[in-house]
Amino acid sequence: MDELTTPGGGRAMTSEEMVRLCKDHTMYTWAATGAVDPIPVDRAEGVYLYTPEGERILDFNSQLMCVNIGHGHPKVLAAIERQMKKFAYVYPGTATEIRARVSKRLAELVPGDINTFFFTLGGAEANENAIRTARLYTGRQKILARYRSYHGGTNACMQLTGDPRRLANEPGMPGIIHVMDPRPYDYSFGTSDAEMADNHLRYLEETITYEGPETIAAMFVETVIGTNGIQPPPQGYLPRLKELLDRHGILLVCDEVMCGWGRTGKLFAFEHYDIVPDIVTMAKGLTSAYAPLGAMGVSDTIADHFKSNVFWGGLTYNSHALSLAVAEAVIDVLHDEKLVENAARMESVMLGEMERLKKKHPSLKEGRAIGLFGMLDIRKNAAGELICPYNGGHPAMAELAKSLRDNGMFTFVRWSHIMCNPPLCINEAQIKEGFEIIDSALDITDRVFEG
Ligand SMILES: Cc1ncc(COP(=O)(O)O)c(C=O)c1O
Fold it and tell me: Are 354 and 289 members of one domain?
């Protein structure tokens, strides 16, 4: 062991050392290690990250759209300490006060008849258990999911996922049927919400007929699509979808891993759309990523089924006390600091900034946001064609991403899109600071705009 690897012993690492050792000894997600250029992070507070050398970076994506309350909140630290002093872990077959308190709180907060929860370590495990629950409950095997979706990196969730991350993981678990999304990927056609919902539901019902409704257990939807476009559903679509699925005895699972916990300006995104799903899955914002935790919430009818039927699932870290203590503190912070209300209020600030940039930059096709769930789309010509093909890149977008990073912003640039998903504690001045950085980066894509 040299001084750098002696716990608590050596001097603090430089950025260069951190990056080198992390790349030498760890694998990075969705990447070839040789190609990654990780940001060295020493500490984080509020909406900012800091490198070991003190460079301040604005977190415009809440990391993976998960640090909803912002970084470094002292109330969460205190809650971890309090729980740690009692115990950190007991096995899932026990009853604990923190499990009792958090599950009761969730039953109060999650709308409708969703009052029973199964705790996991993250979103993928919550979805895995939703697949299991739907199959055990209905006695059916097949699952419907949409193409423009991401549902997690585990084996079954990779098959649920519609986006290109699935492709290298195929073939996997059989029985997943992908269906089109209501909104086309290239949305330049000007189709109305009602037409999109009509077309989609007609096609979906035909698919259900061909597949055999008696074989289909559930349909998964991201209530508001996350990484694949930050796309709210067309108006009127979700209640009609729920009615269609109900008619065929198919459960609706709303994956709220990314869009839940205040991100859209309501605690759960489905609250915007006048539905309650049969199953909801959540993670990320539930603990604001201060500790790993996911949950699957089920309706009373499904919960009743498992009172007399075995739930054939388990996890060593199910209902982990430290993660639950974090969740409780995070829910308190969201409530006390009115962060969901702040997300709703900041939506118009973000939309205002997007509109300002749209007037100035011909390459900006559209900006949209629901709460603090936002995205910018970059186009290559006046006809509105996106600058990158689906699942493709463009040198100008790579340059734009570098410019954001060089000017002190962390966010994701994916294909033709720039993510705008800051922590829910962000204020107006900090949103404007972010859009100033984006403003100058858009000069790069303007230069290749074909007119
Ligand atoms: C909508 C959605 N579902 C599921 C997941 C998987 O969650 P996790 O990475 O915590 O397993 C994600 C992660 O980004 C997500 O965005």
Answer: no
Does the beta carbon of 162 lie inside 6 Å of ligand 1? no
Same domain, 344 and 322: no
- CA 103, 107, 111, 114 torsion: positive or negative? positive
Dihedrals phi, psi of 311, to nearest 5 degrees: -90, 105
pLDDT of residue 248: 98
Does 392 lie in the same domain as 321? Answer: no
Q: Which long-range contacts (CB under 8 A, 24 or more apart) does 72-75 make?
A: 72/43, 72/44, 72/45, 72/46, 73/288, 73/290, 73/329, 73/330, 73/333, 75/329, 75/332, 75/333
Residue 152 is part of which domain span?
A: 74-336
Which residue in 406, 428, 407, 409 sits closest to 418, CA to CA? 409
Query: Are 388 and 377 part of one and the same domain?
Result: yes
Closest C-alpha residue for ligand 1 atom 6 = 152
Closest to 224 (Cα-Cα) out of 254, 184, 245, 188:
254
CB-CB contact of 218 with 143 (8 Å):
yes
Q: What is the CATH number of the domain that holds 114?
A: 3.40.640.10
- pLDDT tens by residue, 259-279: 999 999 999 999 999 999 999
**DSSP label at residue 275:** -
| Phi, psi at 410, each rounded to 5° | -100, 120
Indicate whether 53 and 91 sit together in one domain.
no
For a ligand 1 pocket test, name from 121, 151, 225, 227 the mutation site with the most ligand atoms within 8 angstroms of its C-beta.
151
What spacing in Å lies between the alpha carbon of 448 and ligand 1's midpoint?
34
Residue 451 to residue 448: CA distance in whole angstroms: 9
Number of domains in the chain: 2
Q: Is 291 in the pocket of ligand 1 (CB under 6 A)?
A: no
- Structure confidence by residue, pLDDT tens digits, 80-116: 999 999 999 999 999 999 999 999 999 999 999 999 9
On whether both 306 and 363 belong to a single domain, the answer is: no
* Residues 150 and 288 grouped into a single domain: yes
- For 422, phi then psi, to 5°, come to -75, 165
Is residue 142 within 8 Å of residue 215, measured between CB atoms? yes
Span from the CA of 73 to the centroid of ligand 1 (angstroms)? 23
Which strands, in side-by-side order, build the sheet including 409-410? 43-45, 48-50, 56-59, 409-410
Distances (CA, A) of 60 to 70, 146, 259, 438: 11, 27, 16, 11
Task: Locate all alpha helices (DSSP H) within 110-192, ordered by sequence.
Answer: 123-138, 155-160
First-to-last C-alpha distance (Å) of the chain: 59
Q: What is the pTM of this model?
A: 0.97
